[in-house]
Amino acid sequence: MTSRKMTAEKIEDVSALAVRAYELIVGSQTEGLTQNMVWKMLGLSSRDGSRLVTGLEKRGLIRREKVVDGGRWTYKLIPVTYPAVVRSIETIPCTTCEFEPQCKLGGIVNPITCPPEREGNGLADWVIREFRAFRPG
Q1: How many CB atoms lie within 10 A of CB 28?
Q2: For residues 102 and 110, what is the distance between their CA atoms, to the nearest angstrom?
Q3: With bands split at pLDDT 50, 70 and 90, how would you rate the model's confidence at 11?
Q4: Integer Cα distance of 123 and 135 in angstroms
Q5: Phi, psi for residue 20 in degrees, rounded to 5
Q6: pLDDT of 56 above 60
């Protein structure tokens, strides 16, 4: 009789595969990938791939959409949430703004009356630029 108990090493392998699968799906932007494409990229059987995808779906990271691909029914895996991008956080204009020490909600300088905003260099413009850069179209 074989043991079904998972070792720490096996759990790490599964976690690494889940992270890699999620990265592949997110890398597709909003277009998504078919599940069989993800399985092939990761070298998984349909059974193992299905379990992996189910876990990502249960965590709310992806959603599955039934589609026809090559005359066969399959699922397209579409990202629901996106990881934070450090580059994005590093470029936030508030970190270098001369008005930052006085900026607060309800203050004379605040995110709504942001002086750099009038020049197209404020927080709202940054948010829009980052959104477009991450989700083109």
Answers
A1: 16
A2: 8
A3: very low
A4: 18
A5: -65, -45
A6: yes
Task: Give yes or no for a contact between 62 and 25, defined as CB atoms under 8 angstroms apart.
Answer: yes
Written out in words, the top-level CATH class of the domain with range 8-79 is mainly alpha
CA 77 to chain centre: 12
Containing 64, the helix (H) or strand (E) segment is strand 62-69
CATH 1.10.10.10 intervals, the chain: 8-79
Write down the pTM of the prediction. 0.56
Higher pLDDT, residue 89 or 72 = 72
Instruction: Examine the pLDDT at 109 and tell me if it is beyond 50.
Output: yes
Q: How far apart are CA 33 and CA 80, in angstroms?
A: 13
As a whole number, mean pLDDT of residues 68-84 equals 87
Segment (H or E) for 41: helix 35-42
pLDDT of residue 14: 62
How confident is the model at residue 29, as a pLDDT? 64
Dihedrals phi, psi of 7, to nearest 5 degrees: -80, 165
Distance of CA 82 to the CA centre of its chain: 2
**Contact (CB, 8 A) for 117 and 124:** yes
- The residue whose two tokens read 């589609």 is 67
